[in-house]
Write a structure and sequence with these properties.
451 residues, alpha/beta, seven-stranded mixed β-sheet, five-stranded antiparallel β-sheet, globular
């Protein structure tokens, strides 16, 4: 590896980063993270911080999961790659499909389709949803419904059901036939309704209205995150997802739960759907399936959907979709080791306890710092603070202020993430109580820097 002067001089010069302005990043260079252990990351200058981002909502096991590293090395030595396009497969992928069935059986999932990440998993689910209806002869069911503020990755399908303007506007026109209903976001919504239960009812009515307007027979699927992550950790009322499930059922619309963040324990349950007592028709997973150690994902398919495909005709039920790296043996081996570690450490239980600690801590910070307009979380290790210029008008804080909070928190010992005017946190599920205290103290320092 070149020396640190070389790396700093060339930082963001020849590399365009996702979700950033390529010119701005040449001026405000990204932090160079050099190493990590446990839940702590170390930058190129040797500054150590607790990683309250968990990589990117994904490093659930922390950075020192030896069994996963060994599984990757072992699989690389044995079989680094082979195609899974129909006609060949590999041992790790077969075993993983069995494991996932056990894991997500309580959610009604029966089959897995492997991908290279969350956007691929979403794309796969959207495509399979359309194909499901075509196999059944309902050729008109092609549209998708989703939530404003939802995040479903950046492929054209995912971006089209995405509910955040900034991920859409520069790439329009997107897929036709995608329609959005209001987010279960009590702090800001078109109804001016702050009560989460009443808001859930209002959104259910808006959903019914949209279905009536579009015609149920034109809608393939509704996609939602059980807890909306990148949109600002928006936690719906407990009645919300069951209400959506009931509406989908009544209108023959498939429900896709986007569990790319919420799958594998982050909410305090093994899936976000289980957290709310809902069985979706399709589930999308990625991130924590390999704890971010290898790019990998899985779209999971319920018995109901699987039966239609498996008994369908050869022309309409053949899956003419997939990726070179679908069922990658190294990814599958990493996932198998990850699932075993996740289960062994019972990470969902720590996620629930540490999530409550973090949420109670940021609730106290809200009392102390007027810039904190709203805090959200309390359902596992997904927590957000929404920063405002004026609490009375709820005007969002400007980007420079949010960046100052971020930098001051970093200097004080915690890496947090910016998402618009939100500070987002999703530490590894292995995080300790002391590390959560460090994050809270660093955030306090960050907020004090702009107060
Ligand atoms: C809910 C959800 N869906 C899909 C994606 C896209 O995943 P990826 O970035 O791996 O393509 C993300 C990424 O953060 C996500 O949070």
């Amino acid at each position: 590896m070149k020396d640190s002067n070389f790396l700093k001089e060339n930082n963001a010069r020849h590399l365009w980063h996702p979700m950033g302005h390529p010119g701005d990043l040449q001026v405000h260079a990204p932090k160079i993270i050099s190493s990590a252990e446990g839940a702590t990351i170390t930058d190129i200058d040797g500054h150590r911080t607790v990683d309250a981002v968990g990589g990117l909502w994904c490093v659930n096991l922390g950075y020192s999961a030896e069994p996963v590293k060994q599984a990757i090395a072992g699989q690389l030595a044995k079989l680094p790659y082979y195609s899974a396009f129909a006609g060949s497969t590999n041992e790790a992928a077969i075993e993983l499909s069995f494991e996932l069935r056990e894991w997500f059986g309580p959610d009604g999932m029966a089959r897995a389709f492997f991908t290279s990440g969350g956007s691929d998993s979403v794309e796969t689910a959207l495509r399979l949803a359309r194909q499901y209806h075509k196999i059944r002869g309902a050729h008109g069911r092609t549209k998708f419904l989703s939530l404003k503020k939802g995040y479903h990755g950046t492929h054209f399908g995912g971006a089209s059901v995405n509910g955040n303007n900034r991920f859409r506007i520069n790439y329009e026109p997107l897929l036709p036939g995608c329609f959005h209903i209001p987010a279960p976001y009590p702090y800001r919504n078109p109804f001016g309704e702050e009560d989460p239960a009443r808001l859930a009812q209002l959104i259910a009515a808006a959903m019914e209205d949209e279905i009536a307007f579009q015609g149920a027979e034109t809608i393939a699927a509704f996609i939602m995150e059980p807890v909306l992550g990148a949109g600002g950790v928006i936690v719906p009322h407990e009645s919300f997802m069951p209400l959506m499930r009931e509406i989908c059922d009544r209108h023959g619309i498939l429900m896709i739960a986007d569990e790319v963040i919420t799958g594998f324990g982050r909410t305090g349950d093994w899936s976000g759907s289980r957290h709310w007592g809902v069985k979706p028709d399709l589930m999308t997973t990625a991130k924590a399936i390999t704890s971010g150690y290898f790019p990998f994902g899985a779209t999971l398919i319920s018995e109901k959907v699987a039966e239609v495909f498996e008994t369908g005709g050869i022309t309409e039920a053949t899956i003419s979709h997939g990726y070179t790296y679908s069922a990658h043996p190294v990814g599958a081996a990493a996932a198998l080791a990850c699932l075993a570690e996740t289960k062994r450490l019972d990470l969902k239980t720590n996620a629930a306890a540490r999530g409550t600690q973090l949420f109670e801590g940021v609730t106290r910070l809200k009392e102390k710092h007027a810039i904190v307009g709203d805090v959200r979380g309390g359902h596992g290790l997904m927590t957000a603070l929404e920063l405002v210029a004026d609490p009375a008008t709820r005007t969002p804080a400007d980007a420079a202020t949010v960046a100052r909070v971020h930098q001051a928190a970093y200097e004080a010992g915690a890496m947090v993430r910016i998402g618009g005017q939100n500070i987002l946190m999703s530490p590894p599920l292995t995080v300790t109580a002391e590390e959560i205290d460090t994050v809270l103290a660093a955030l306090d320092a960050g907020l004090a820097a702009v107060s």
